[in-house]
Predict the 3D structure of the following.
Amino acid sequence: MLLAQLSDCHVSIPGEEFSDLYHSADRLREAIRHVNEGVNRPDLVVLTGDLINAARRDEYELLREIVKDFEMPYYLMPGNHDHCALLREIFSDHDYLPREGKLHYVIDGWPLKLICLDTNIHGKPQGELGAAQLDWLEAELAGEKSRNCLIFMHHPPFRTGLTSMDNMGLLDMEAFIEVISRHDHIERVLSGHLHRAIQRLSHGTLIQVCPSTSHQVELSLGDNNSLATVFEPPEYLLHYWTEADGLVTHSEFVKDYGVAWRLAIGGIGETY
């Protein structure tokens, strides 16, 4: 199984200040082209929140026009910049989205059980799962006897040293960690929000943050951290699972690089 994770697309309307700075809609289009046409074509795609930038209907309508170009199944999750009611309405044909309450769901039909969580607090940058959703997660994990589980969430459940972003973090991260610490069949926890590639091991489970297809956050650690963005390349993650080796993750830049040389089976091939 090959799964692509895209995050923090922040789609905005062309001609507005945010769009003029980041060109986020164009960068998502290019990321989708890269996913569709790349040598590593995934079986499915999960977009882990902050799908749009200003929680507006016209942004979701533009997002819908863009993501229809995916040539494989794709799944949407909310982040703190999203508006859950509008997401549910504009993508009402996405049957996996619950019709009421938190937008958490399970993607079935794959060798791993894919569990998608909703950390959105309407109108706030912080995230929260809440007791009811944590109970639902506990039941989903406890009820799975035959497969390992892959958990997706927008806000990562750990502090990173990016102080400005940590102040917009997951409010009930300790409660989440307590839940996953009781289960040894969690393959990975995958999140977004931080606009950087970051990893943390917690109770034997690797928690990983996906970079943004729009823009990255400056790597400035510690108490004097200031929030700034940098024009590092748009990026997404490819999660490759096999029964023999489990889950292996690769970073993929949204850029086409030429092949310098290729080692052919049985010897050195042509150089380019």
Q: What stands out?
A: The helical segments are 17-22, 24-37, 57-67, 84-90, 131-143, 163-166, 173-180. The mean pLDDT is 95. The two ends are 31 Å apart (CA to CA). Residues 2-271 form a domain with the Purple Acid Phosphatase; chain A, domain 2 fold (CATH 3.60.21.10).
